């Protein structure tokens, strides 16, 4: 019962504008959960609420029994979070940054060293460990953020648009890892606006649009619901990329 994320009638406003409106939701471990929605639909806001980075204006959130407003620290300890924005300290070198992250999670030195080595190899960062994170390319900075989320073997993986700008080899490996983590009972929640990613990975899709949950379930179910509710704009912005690709292929093939 405790080992899940529960939203009860949660709303969040920026100024007078709602970013999330009356969200009620259960997110369970054991499956790959995907927050799918066009840009601006509230995905990042929802993730930040889970970690207590921002506070709801109404409603209650429980994360494995903890309230992120009162008790964000234990939640952050059990969570690996990959933010969408670059939150690195640019004046730290890659290895220093990972050591800093390991320390904040309270890992013992031996364990920290071992885990840091593991993520450096996994995310192919070996030849960058002495470089300042601020001097890295966008793709490498994403790798460092991903590596940081895997250092402490968290129970919850919160990944905000994790595949953007990531090397295809790493993207592929990450998909396999996330599926396996879910199978092994971890909670995986990732956000995307890319239909193909949801299609390839999701056991459960949460379709967000303009701060509301349109529906949850399989890809087919959530898209059908969007269409039957007349949310043509949401439907099109999610499906357009695929249709366009098909059009381009057709045009090129003659
Ligand atoms: P998504 O992650 O789906 O792209 P966001 O959660 O980032 O969506 O944003 C949801 C809405 O809230 C958008 O309309 C966005 O402009 C607004 N918003 C997000 N963060 C802020 C902020 N710090 N100040 C004002 N408006 C914000």
Automatic annotation (TrEMBL):
GO molecular function list: ATP binding; ATP hydrolysis activity
Keyword Ligase belongs to the record: no
Source organism, top-level taxon: Archaea
Domain (ABC transporter): residue spans on this chain: 5-235
CDD domains: ABC_DR_subfamily_A (cd03230)
Keywords for this protein: ATP-binding, Nucleotide-binding, Transport
InterPro entries, A to Z: AAA+_ATPase (IPR003593), ABC_transporter-like_ATP-bd (IPR003439), ABC_Transporter_VariousFunc (IPR051782), P-loop_NTPase (IPR027417)
ATP-binding recorded as keyword: yes
Annotated Pfam families: ABC_tran (PF00005)
SMART domains: AAA (SM00382)
Full protein name: ABC transporter related protein
Record organism: Staphylothermus hellenicus (strain DSM 12710 / JCM 10830 / BK20S6-10-b1 / P8)
């Amino acid at each position: 019962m405790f080992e899940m994320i529960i939203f009860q009638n949660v709303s969040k406003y920026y100024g007078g504008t709602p970013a999330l409106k009356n969200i009620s939701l259960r997110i369970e471990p054991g499956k790959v959960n995907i927050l799918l929605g066009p840009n601006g639909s509230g995905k990042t806001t929802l993730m930040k609420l889970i970690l207590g980075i921002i506070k709801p204006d109404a409603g209650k959130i429980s994360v494995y029994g903890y309230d992120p407003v009162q008790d964000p620290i234990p939640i952050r300890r059990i969570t690996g979070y990959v933010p969408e924005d670059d939150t690195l300290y640019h004046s730290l070198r890659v290895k220093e940054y990972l050591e800093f992250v390991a320390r904040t999670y309270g890992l013992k030195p031996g364990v920290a060293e071992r885990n840091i080595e593991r993520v450096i190899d996994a995310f192919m960062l070996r030849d960058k460990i002495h470089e300042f994170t601020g001097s890295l390319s966008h793709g490498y900075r994403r790798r460092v953020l991903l590596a940081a989320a895997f250092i402490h073997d968290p129970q919850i993986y919160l990944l905000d648009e994790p595949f953007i700008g990531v090397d295809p080899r790493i993207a592929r490996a990450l998909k396999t890892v996330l599926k396996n983590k879910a199978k092994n009972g971890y909670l995986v929640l990732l956000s995307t606006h890319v239909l193909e990613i949801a299609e390839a990975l999701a056991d459960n899709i949460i379709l967000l649009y303009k701060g509301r949950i349109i529906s949850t379930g399989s890809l087919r179910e959530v898209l059908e619901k969007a269409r039957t509710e007349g949310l043509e704009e949401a439907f099109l912005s999610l499906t357009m990329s695929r249709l366009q690709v098909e059009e381009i292929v057709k045009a090129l093939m003659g």
